[in-house]
Amino acid sequence: MKTKRNYRIKIFSDGAERDQLLKMNQNPIVSGMTTNPSLMKKAGVTDYRAFCKDILKEIRVKPVSFEVFADDFATMEKQAREIATWGENVYVKIPIQNSEGKSALPLVKTLTRAGIKLNVTAIYTLKQTIETCQALEGGVPSIVSVFAGRAADLGHDPVPTLTAAAEACAEYGDQMECLWASTREVYNILQAEQCGCRIITVPFDVLAKLEGGFKTLEELSLDTVRTFKKDSESAGFTL
């Protein structure tokens, strides 16, 4: 069975709690960080610029993805260009479309050719992946984030899509890295690696499960029984 150091895939942490981000920066199994406006809101961030710049004082080497939050493309471009100036390790996250369903790929094409490293996000289909790769072609190294967990939550099998998406990105060599997004469990790391993804972004709570390494199924069985026993005793159950 694999240990936490045997993965070929790059593991990025996903979250917006400052202390956790700085802790992940010191974690040798974490190769980078991602966040988004929803995670920032959940973490209580109120000043977007100040939060990001504060994080970048400590995280200077590992790549960090910060997402634009504008919905119109002119403002989105303005935000992207500013965010890109905050550090050499910064990737700007651009959603595949805005809230009206209008494609952001013309902007993606403009930004990548301007030398801005991008993380194109909220991708769910192979068609979106291929079109994203075409928009990024000829630009600087970028990330293509395909959402697996959210698709699986609604009964869609993400593996065929992620496998095909990884193959599509691989055609462009090192310029594009396919990222498995919206991870739900540790097993997704294995799945992402088997699909050929270069990166997987993992929430803090799932990453915490890697800290103690892996247990055999027999060990998990015993742990489960012990947990039942402990909880039954603490609850004071009798018959």
Q: What count of structural domains?
A: 1
Q: Would you identify the CATH H-level superfamily?
A: Aldolase class I
Architecture (CATH level 2) name: Alpha-Beta Barrel
Order of helices and strands: EHEHHEHEHEHEHHEHEHH
Q: Main sheet: which strands, in order across?
A: 1-2-3-4-5-6-7-8
- Regarding quaternary structure, what we see is single chain
**Major sheet summary line:** 8 strands, parallel, barrel
The radius of gyration is 19 Å
CATH class: Alpha Beta
Structural account:
With 239 residues, the protein is an alpha/beta fold. It has one domain (10-213): Aldolase class I (TIM Barrel, Alpha-Beta Barrel), CATH 3.20.20. Helices cover 45% and strands 18% of the residues. The protein has eleven helices and eight strands. An eight-stranded parallel beta barrel has the order 1-2-3-4-5-6-7-8, surrounded by six helices. The longest helix has 19 residues, at 217-235. It is globular. The model has no long low-confidence stretch (mean pLDDT 94).
What's the short story on this structure?
The protein is of the alpha/beta class and about 240 residues long. The protein has helices spanning about 20-25, 35-40, 50-60, 75-85, 105-115, 125-135, 150-155, 160-170, 185-195, 205-210, 215-235, and strands at about 10-15, 30-35, 65, 90-95, 120-125, 140-145, 175-180, 200-205. The protein has a single domain (about 10-215), classed as Aldolase class I (TIM Barrel, Alpha-Beta Barrel).
How are the elements arranged and paired?
Blueprint: E1 10-14, H1 18-25, E2 30-34, H2 37-42, H3 48-58, E3 64-67, H4 73-84, E4 90-95, H5 105-113, E5 118-123, H6 126-136, E6 142-147, H7 149-153, H8 158-170, E7 176-181, H9 187-195, E8 199-203, H10 204-208, H11 217-235
Parallel strand pairs: 1-2, 1-8, 2-3, 3-4, 4-5, 5-6, 6-7, 7-8
Helix pairs in contact: 5-6, 6-8, 8-9
